[in-house]
Amino acid sequence: MKVIGLIGGMSWESTVPYYRLINEGVKARLGGLHSAKIVLYSVDFAEIERLQHRGEWDEAGALLADAARALERAGADFVVLCTNTMHKVAPAIEAAVAIPLLHIADPTAAAIHQAGLSCVGLLGTRFTMEQDFYRARLTDRHGIDVVIPDDDDRALVHRVIYEELCLGRVEEASRLAYRDVIQRLVAQGAQGVILGCTEISMLVGVEDAAVPLFDTTGLHAAAAVQVALASC
User: Fold this and answer.
1) Angstrom distances, CA of residue 205 to CA of 27, 51, 148, 218
2) Which are the catalytic amino acids?
3) Alpha carbon distance 42, 18 (integer Å)
4) Res 49: pLDDT
5) Long-range CB contacts (within 8 A, 24+) of 79-82
6) 219: part of which helix (H) or strand (E)?
7) Residues 8-60: pLDDT tens digits?
8) Are the beta carbons of 227 and 24 closer than 8 angstroms?
9) Where does residue 217 rank: exposed (0-12), middle (13-18), buried (19+ CB within 10 A)?
10) Using CA atoms, how far apart are residues 22 and 2, in angstroms rounded to an integer?
11) What is the pLDDT of residue 212?
């Protein structure tokens, strides 16, 4: 079994499901008392969040590159970055270590293709929805068209993530608002919707949409299990 290196804490609310889902996946595959071999480096999200909103991505990338190097020294065989937004600095992480990074967009794209879809909506932080680092990977590498909410809806989605979900708050009013945003994405032609922030699955589930929802946390964790157990 390979050792999984998790970079978590962004927020810790969504890192907890990674640990649980990965261990559940290993137990389901191997049975008995088996559990995953995991090394976790959990950052202080307040430091990362400040850099995000200042646009200081190089500095944020340097912090996460340091985390990846620490995981490599601790014996990790590959890195799992437990956040969608910070994949903006994936190149800095990949350049810092000799072990591979399992990019969150790739298992998400595989699930979209498996569902037979070609156009999806994307929910996430403003950074994920508006910048190219995530959408371009889906389109250029995987041939998937991506639609995003309008500006007002993007502001709402972003606010709920940072002011509620990252603080562990799950509000019914926000769930209903997200349902409306999803409906508007479907009206734009989305055949499914990516929950492109690892906290969003705390708020909405399959019962909240008439189209498939792609939970990046679950998909990323499942892919980590596949890589870890590839030789087992």
Assistant:
1) 24, 30, 19, 12
2) 83, 197
3) 12
4) 96
5) 79/5, 79/6, 79/7, 80/4, 80/5, 80/6, 80/7, 80/18, 80/220, 80/221, 80/224, 81/7, 82/6, 82/7, 82/8, 82/9, 82/10, 82/14, 82/15, 82/18, 82/198, 82/217, 82/220
6) helix 216-228
7) 999 999 999 999 999 999 999 999 999 999 999 999 999 999 999 999 999 99
8) no
9) buried
10) 12
11) 97
Is 80 within 8 Å of 102 (Cβ atoms)?
yes
The answer to whether the pTM exceeds 0.70 is yes
Domains of the chain and any CATH numbers: 4-103+219-228 (3.40.50.1860), 105-216 (3.40.50.1860)
Q: What is the DSSP letter of 38?
A: E
232 pLDDT higher than 90: no
Tokens standing for 212? 């498939």
**Cross-strand pairs, 145:** 119
Q: List, as own/partner pairs, every contact residues 147-154 make where C-beta atoms lie below 8 angstroms and the sequence separation is at least 24, other chains included.
A: 147/119, 147/120, 147/121, 147/122, 147/185, 147/188, 147/189, 147/190, 148/121, 148/122, 148/185, 149/121, 149/123, 149/181, 149/184, 149/185, 150/184, 153/181, 153/184, 154/126, 154/129, 154/130
Nearest alpha-carbon partner for 200 in 184, 178, 180: 178
